[in-house]
Amino acid sequence: MNDDQALIAAQEALKAWGVEMSPRLIKNRENIVLEAASPDGQRAALRLHRPGYQSDDAIRSELWWSEALVAAGMIVPQPIRTLAGEVLATGGPRVASLVTWLEGAPLGEGGVQLAMAPQAQADLHEALGAELARLHLASDAMERPEAFEREVLDLDALLGEDPSWGRFWENASLSEEEAHLLLTCRDKLRAVIGAHAAADGDFGLIHADALRENVLVQGDDVRLIDFDDGVFGFRMYELGVAMSQNWDQANEADLGGALLRGYASVRALPENAAALLDAFTVMRAMASCGWVIGRYADDHPAVRDYAERAIAMAKRFV
């Protein structure tokens, strides 16, 4: 769906909320996201969901989760119901949802060095660690409805023969030697993460996509947005995702330490948290190397970009 088609579809979808306006396109990627208005005129975010990614029930589960987090005292986007009292509008070319707008600027951008002073970077990562711990505490305390549906990202889904995000060692841009390196890295990751799983490593609902653009900065606080990738997964994977864009920063170790320190101020970490953070950070790079397979043509620059990051991180890890 191109930008013009997205705007037309968005205008049509907003009728389910009784809203007549021309929304502003924010991003046209997997989900199409637009700035719109709620029925009472407040700023809101309209999402046109990517067909075939999440089922309607899985999207409803995500929105139920958001409401439950708000009820638990967290500040996250929550659904705005249609005139029919539903959280989804399903009559258009794409399923649509409308959620409350959160103010704030993204923590940063992937592939771009963080701009703020090093101490500010560390302070915000400490705040992020604490916010993720609060998310996990609140999620564990919820009594989920029977119809609650989210993917399970366990050891096999991460590192099995058919990982959920794709067989990363089969990225089309890899040489035979590079593919072998990623398979070697996969074996080492299976050993580390497998031992964590065997020891009943902390596992439950996670945001699973706490990248910089999904972390809004509000003064000294941070807020999470875009729960579309939320899954049942390893809690340390959550922290690895947050670190995966910091892998080439000179202060990577300081940021990782701050993230762990913030998390531990709210919720207990495993004894080997630093080693697990390293492993799950690399794990996210491997997953992303597989994620591009089938989403881009084999010769698209993004396919090689993700592969090169995975190769660099695998060399360091192995």
TrEMBL record:
The keyword Secreted does not apply. Keywords: Kinase, Transferase. The keyword Acetylation does not apply. Its EC number is 2.7.1.39. It is an enzyme of class 2 (transferase). It holds the Pfam family APH. GO terms for molecular function: homoserine kinase activity. InterPro entries: Aminoglycoside_PTrfase (IPR002575), Kinase-like_dom_sf (IPR011009), Pseudomonas-type_ThrB (IPR050249). Residues 40-268 form the Aminoglycoside phosphotransferase domain. Belongs to the pseudomonas-type ThrB family. This is Homoserine kinase.
